[in-house]
Every structure is written in structure tokens, then in C-alpha cells.
Amino acid sequence: MTEFLQHIVNMLILGSTYALLGIGLTLIFGIMRVVNFAHGELYSFGAYFVYFAAILLGFNFFVSILIAIVAGCLLGALIEFVLLRPMRGADIDTTMLIMIGAMIVMQNGEQYIWGGVAKSVNTPFPQAPLVIGSVSVSWLSVFVFCASLALIAASYLLINKTKLGKAMRATFQDRDTASLMGVNIQMIYMATFALGSALAAAAGALLGPVYVISPQMGNLASLKAFAIVILGGLGSIGGATIGGFMLAFAEEMGAGYISSGYRDAMGFLIIIAVLLFKPTGLFARAERIG
Amino acid sequence: MTKTKSVTALAAAALLSASFAVPGVAQTIRIGVNEPLTGPFAASGTYVVNGAKIAADEVNAKGGVLGKKIELVIEDNKSNPTEAAAVAEKLITNDKVPVMMGAWGSSLTLAVMPKLLEYKVPMLVETSSSGKITTSGNPYIFRISPPSSVEAHAFKDIFPKLHIKKVDFLVINNDWGRGAAEDFGKMLKANGVQVGNVETMDQAAQDMSAQLSKMKSSDSDTIMVTTAVEQLTLVLKQAAALGIKKQIVTTGGSQNPDQLIDQAGAAANGTYHLTTFAPWFADDTPDPAATKYFLGEWKKRGFHFAGATESFRGYDGIRTIVRAIEKAGKAEPAAIKDGMWKVDFSGLNGKIKFEKQGPAGRESGQSFPNVYLIKIDGGKISLPKL
Q1: What is the pLDDT of residues B116-133, one digit of tens each?
Q2: Spatial separation of the C-alpha atoms in residues A223 and A258, rounded to whole Å
Q3: Which of B210, B240, B275 is the last residue of a domain?
Q4: A3 vs B214: CB contact, 8 Å cut-off?
């Protein structure tokens, strides 16, 4: 029982960051129809930016995370403006190839700037863990969990309760009609990509200090983000959130009770099952791929 | 159209002249170095290469070998076995190196080995510890790092003093980790210690909480961990976060204890590490003068002291190769291979002299270095007198 509770706590923390990664990707695909292969690179960008701000510039740890999120947002807007805007109307394969190119350039750029040896960030949190009964968890993880939930809630409110969110949802449902109703599509696209990028950078900024920061860290993050989006259904924030927790659950329980050698396989087995029985994802409202 | 053609022709010409320019006339003796400089093992591979450079500079300052300077041709295998094999092929066919050092990890080295048979070029293995490397019948392999079985054998005299009754293993999921779990497990079982869970972790994995949670609630008293320093840092931090109070013993010699103290902080306290070089106690090493020279150079170049436990292998590796070239009398693969068998000198971690291992007629060379157990306590390293 002790072990089970510990697995549940681990799963909740892992799941919250997976959800953050998934939401960014699902928004970008849902609204823009762009398969963003560079998502994982924005994740490692966020992590490196925290290292840069906190260790090299000496900013406060929490301020550094905020700076990294803002930087991720700006980089996202830049990518949208330079790479995606000229390609508006191009088919999905073309933009996908562009994003693969962006991923390769960004990853090699990180390697060039920071070198291949992993970096680590020290945090102001105490090393002694928080112990509740037989369950134990580090204070840093508790902070990551709370921050992730806050960001997920903020994204949900932004999409569902603001005017910008309404315009995004309108664009998601029908781009041409939204445009005819006076929605500035260019602005919506840039805002969407910036928001998705900021969420990926936030995930990296939060997880970088938990793990170590390396140029390849985005690869696994991209893979998991795609898995979460497929699980949850494209374009659904709620779906991506639940998908993130489901993937974490499968990995944690798979490694804990079946075999740690197949930890990453567990999540993907579920995805195969979802694709076989409900190909649009568990929570998608309708078939959305054109 | 014609413009495109002339550009293509120009590019082709440039490529051709570049490839002619590379080999040149052999003014130097080239030694191929095949190490992971990016990917999960980047820190370790970089340390080894920096150690190798110290050896090369030392040899060249003394006039080189056979009247020629040596030149290291360093390539990155990206911590990836496929790349490691490609790098070996490139070093042999394009750079025409007569001997190589590499490839850090066991899976990386195993991937290179068929290329050695194909091109008949010897390779000095400086770090890998899977038993398979020297027992599979590849006569071009000469290893100075201890295989897991030698580490396990050395641990036989140590473990009773750590009061180990039941042990769980957490190992990296490759030839190195699985080999260590097998060799240590066999030795411990034969000596009356129970073996509980054997858990693995992917080499790129960053979250090991699931495996560690399982071990937290098992009835073992000790966790034995085999992986490189980056992942080990995460294992120690996550074990501390989970409140695991068990004894932790690590194997494999790529722990870089000072880096652990630096990056894992208090989480490293109370942990034991099997290592093959003890730079903290230079006077207790087999060749104190050489150890001090090496550590002095390491410091002079501004490298972090933490890397010394890893980089000494690159240093000893190149020194071994140079001695083999000296014995060979010429820089040709077959002669260097024969020369390796005649090498006999004191390395930083014990005598380097190859003994035959593997099937008769196709034996690999294996040298048997010292193994030490060190302990981290209060952010300091001690050599516990057990």
C-alpha cells in the first residue's frame, strides 16, 4: 500500500508536467494545423534559459522561471512570424518539414552554445523531502506540481473566458467564417504559437532544475507530447490534461509493477489501443483532420 | 541551368581536393579517439578526451615516439552504438589511423568490434566493463578498465564489512548495466547474499522514481547502482526525495564522486562507490609521481577536479598505445597489435600488462587494475579502512 501511494504521488507530479507539454502542442495543432516538431526544442530552450538567468546572470530562481516563460513566448512569436507566416495556406506536410528543420537547427544551436555536457541548476528548496506518513516527495516537485496546475488552469481560462480565447476557438472551428466575422487570423495564429511555445518553455523551465539540462532533452519531451495529444484528442485542452496524467500513470505503474525495462513502452501500448478503438483520441468531439 | 552545373562541378572539385588534402604525408603518427562527446555520456567522454590530450602533449614534449609526434584524431560517437561503428570506419578508412582508443560504453565498444575484425586494426578499450568485450574472441581488443567480474571479485572481500544481507540492483539498460547486475549478482549469491529486485533504466531516462519507489518498500538493505555520473546524480537526488534510507553502493568507475557532491549535494552523503583510481589520495596510488603530474596538468588546464577519476583512463590509454607503438617499432596496425602484448608499465591505477582472455587463438588482452571502495560523507570523500 505504501508503495502504491508513493507511485500515485510520483504519477501526479509527472502527469502535471506532461499535461503542460501536451496542451501547448494540442493548441498549436488544433488551431493552426501545424505539426510542431520543434515543441521539444522550446522545452529545452526554457530549461537552458533558466540556467542562463539563474546561474550565469544570477537572477532569483523564481524570477528566472518567469523570464524563461516570457522568452519562450517571444521565441514562439518569432518562429511563427519568420517560418510559418510565409507558409500560410501551404499543406500540412510542408509546414511539418519546416518544423523538423527548425528542430534540427535549434538542437544543434543549443549544442553549439552550451556544449554536450549536461548542466544542472540549484534551487532554493531544502534537500530534505516533505514526508507525509510513508509517502515522501521533494519540495521542488511540490512546487513544480503547483506551478503546472496553475499554468494549466490559466490556459483553460484564457481559452474559455477571454475574448482572445473566443477568437481562437472560432478560428479553430472555422477559419474562413471567423475571418469574415472580423477575427484577425494572423494575430490569432501568432498568439496561438506564442502561447503553445510559452507552455513548452514553462515545462522545460520547471523540469530542467528537477533533472539535468542537455541539448537532447527535447527529443523525449516531443515524443511524449505527441503521445499525450494522440491520447487526449487533437485540439482539446481537457483531453491533453487527462492524456498527460494517463501517460504518467501507465509509465509509473508499468515500471513499478510490470517491468522497468519497458517503462516507455507502456504508454505507447495504450496509444496503440486508443488508435485502434477510438482513432480520434479519447476526448475529441469530432473528426478534425482534413 | 548551366550556372547550377558549374556550381555543382565547383563543389565536387572542392570536395575532391579536400579529401586529397586529408591524409598527407605521415609526419605524425595518428591515433583515433572514438568517444561520446554529446548525448547521455557527454560528460564522461569529454573527460576521457581531455585526459588523452594531456598524455599526447606529454609524449610530444618528450620528442614523440619513433621520432615522430603523435596526433589524436578525435571523433564524437554521440553516445550511440550506430554512430560509434561509423566513427570507427571513418577513422580507419579516411584518417588511416593504425590504432584507436574507444569507445567509452560497452554497447558502443561492442558495436565497433566487428569493424576491428574487418579492417584488422587494434583498439585500446579504456572504460567499458561488459565481460563480453574480451571473451567473444576479438584479437584486436586490449582493455585497461576492469570488467564487471573483476570489480565483483574485488568487492567480495569488501561487502561483508558493509553488512549486506539482501541487495536490489538498479542498472542502466545496456550491456554495461546488465553485465554488472549479472556479475555482481552471481558473486553475491555465491557468498550467501540474497538478490531481490533487478530494475533497469533507459540510458536517456531522467525519472527513476518508479523503480526507486519499488525498492523503497522492498526488504533489501542495500541498492547497487550502475550508471554514469549524470544519471547517477538523478538517482541519488530522487532516492533522497523518496526518503530511501538504504545503503547505496555504485559500480562501474564513472561516478566522478566530486561531481556527485557538487550536483547531488546532501543526497550523495553516505553513499559508497567502487572506483579504479583514487586521485584524492595520490600517495596511495601505484605511481605517485605520475599521478601528481597528471593531476597538476589537469588543474593547470582549468578542468574541474571531479573529472580526474574518469579522465585518467584517457591518459593511461594513450600512454599504453604509445608504448605499444614503441615496442612495435613502426606505426602499422599488425605490428602495434603485437606490441600491445609486450606493454608492461605502471599506470595510474596499477600495472598495465595484458593477459589473454577469450577463446584460444583469438584472445583479447585484458589488464587488471586496482579497485577501491570510497565513501562520500559530509560532502567529503574518504577511503574507509575496511
Answers
A1: 999 999 999 999 989 899
A2: 22
A3: B275
A4: yes
